[in-house]
Amino acid sequence: MKDQAENLRRRLELQKNHSMAKTLAILSGKGGVGKSNFSLNFAISLSKLGKKVLLFDMDIGMGNIDILFGQHSPYSIVDFFEDGLSLKEIMTTGPEQISVITGGTGLTHLFTLDEDKYGRFTEEFGSLLESYDYILFDMGAGITQDSAKFLLCVDELIIITTPEPTSVMDAYSTMKYIHSVNDEIPFFLVCNRVFTKKEGKETMIRLQNALRKFLGAEMVALGYLPDDRSVSKAVSKQIPFILSYPDAAVSKSLIEIVSRYVNHGFDEESIIQKSNFLQNMKRYFLGK
After folding, report:
1. Contact by Cβ (8 Å): 153, 280
2. Is 87 helix (H, G, I), strand (E, B) or coil?
3. Which residue, of 75, 91, 200, 269, is most buried by count of CB atoms within 10 Å of its CB?
4. CA nearest 12: which of 168, 101, 126?
5. Do 259 and 107 form a contact (C-beta atoms < 8 A)?
6. Closest CA to 5 of 85, 95, 87, 115
């Protein structure tokens, strides 16, 4: 591990003056809120704007990103951690030329990450930061001991919720935990499956007020996506809705969200900072 840490320090020095990818994790407090569908269509929308995007499916052993766009990948992140393949070897090309690393399915044993696996990931990931504009981690539902380390490393977090009270509470609990460990990571909120604009706005205001009152924290409301039958139809067709139904209400709303995110078109102040992913990886994974 000392050699890995030293190599990482050298790479950090070399990359100080280079442009590095923005890293962000997309997560939810509970499953079934449309997080993976958002992640995929968000990544595609960024690519359509001319951005180079890498999407990680971090729901290890239970991934479904490749199912959503109907393309089976022969390798997954599991092959990197358990079989020694490189990150570049397990990549596949998805819609609109996004790069994808799938989460894999059908594990026959409980998957865990040890220190050596973390170290190897840190080593290889550094070489990817100069190759992309955005690196997205589509996290599994909830927070585990393994996923928490990735969440604490990224530059920004996008939280997906729905107006349902249980979803709102789980989203708040997720942000509360992350804020208690690292209070510098910016939160962005997207409310999915809203029936009216009023419902979407009220949900986001409710969460914003809770963060301010109980945590003294802020978040940026990116926007909301309507409950649209085009989404389920696109899933059935295994063609992302931004491509199969570009004129649908949900697609138009997503385009607005992506534009707001890329152009920093927020009402709230947003701190724009350089990528700290590798420094955070060294801190949380390697204990340096």
Report:
1. yes
2. coil
3. 200
4. 126
5. no
6. 115
Q: Taking 90 as the threshold, does the pLDDT of residue 240 lie above it?
A: yes
Enumerate the β-bridge partners of residue 134.
22, 53
| Angle at alpha carbon of residue 27, lines to 21 and 33, rounded to 5° | 135
| Contact between residue 28 and residue 141 where contact means Cβ atoms under 8 Å apart | yes
- The answer for 96, left when phi > 0, alpha when psi is -120 to 50, beta otherwise, is left
Give the pLDDT confidence score for residue 15 in this predicted structure.
46
Give the Cα separation of 285 and 124 in Å (integer): 14
In Å, what is the CA distance from 83 to each residue of 70, 76, 78, 123, 133?
25, 10, 8, 16, 28
- To the nearest whole percent, how much of the chain has pLDDT over 70? 82
Apex 238 CA angle, 240 and 90, nearest 5: 85
- Edge-to-edge strand ranges of the sheet holding 187-194: 92-93, 99-101, 53-58, 134-139, 22-27, 156-161, 187-194, 219-226
Q: In sequence order, which residues have a C-beta less than 8 Å from that of residue 4 and are 6 or more positions away?
A: 119, 120, 122, 123, 286
Q: Which helix (DSSP H) or strand (DSSP E) does residue 122 occupy? A: helix 115-125
DSSP state for residue 61 in the 8-state scheme: T
Query: Closest by alpha carbon to 235, among 73, 71, 67?
Result: 67
Q: Which amino acid is at 190?
A: V
Nearest by Cα to 77 from 55, 60, 93, 65: 60
- Please check whether residue 98 is in contact with residue 43, taking contact to mean a CB–CB distance below 8 angstroms: yes
> d(Cα 223, Cα 41) in Å, to the nearest integer?
15
The alpha carbon dihedral of 61, 85, 275, 264 has a sign of negative
Task: Please tell me the predicted confidence (pLDDT) of residue 279.
Answer: 64
